[in-house]
Design a protein that fits this description.
The chain has 173 residues and is of the alpha+beta class. It has a single domain, classed as Molybdopterin biosynthesis MoaE subunit (Aldehyde Oxidoreductase, domain 3). It has four helices and nine strands.
Length: 173
């Protein structure tokens, strides 16, 4: 029996309350159905998975709650993707969760595919640094004895000094 439904396409950028799956991001950065036959495919894929840890600043963390403005977050994800592609030969995907997350759950995932491993590693590191700088997603940490909002997204996306700081962290330059 033939299935005439269109193939499912995974978004390169997503903000969701759903559980994140690394295989989904890897599929997104490696599938290139419309690419010419002579297109060089990835020689390496790197990933970053940020998970909710059970300790921060000497306190036992109980859970995190993420809030964000999805339309703007997605635009900023696209901007980060464009900055990354301007610097390295990569295809990237970035997904972030919102809502309540328990210890051990993934809050953010990044995948970077490139013909060259060095580009994939640097791009992945750059992306997480820029996420922390400019994406409008905020973290509310609940711990034994209280809660606190963790500062996030304070840099102006057009601030070249912030972009250069992220680049220095990513490349060690």
């Amino acid at each position: 029996m033939s299935d005439n439904r269109p193939a499912m396409h995974t978004a390169l950028y997503a903000v969701t309350t759903d559980t994140l799956h690394l295989e989904t991001l890897i599929s997104a950065v490696t599938s290139m159905p419309d690419a010419p036959l002579d297109t060089v495919g990835p020689g390496g894929i790197t990933s970053f998975v940020g998970i909710v840890r059970n300790e921060n600043a000497g306190r036992r963390v109980l859970r995190l709650e993420y809030e964000g403005y999805e339309p703007l977050a997605l635009r900023v994800f696209e901007r980060i993707g464009a900055e990354t592609a301007d610097r390295w030969d990569v295809r990237v995907a970035l997904h972030h969760r919102l809502g309540t997350l328990q210890i051990g759950e993934a809050s953010v995932m990044i995948a970077a595919a490139s013909p060259h491993r060095a580009d994939a590693f640097a791009a992945c590191r750059y992306i997480i640094e820029r996420v922390k700088q400019i994406v409008p997603i905020w973290k509310h940490e609940f711990f034994e004895g209280g809660d606190v909002w963790i500062e996030g997204a304070t840099a102006d996306p057009d601030d070249d000094a912030a972009r250069q700081d992220a680049l220095r962290v990513a490349t060690g330059e």
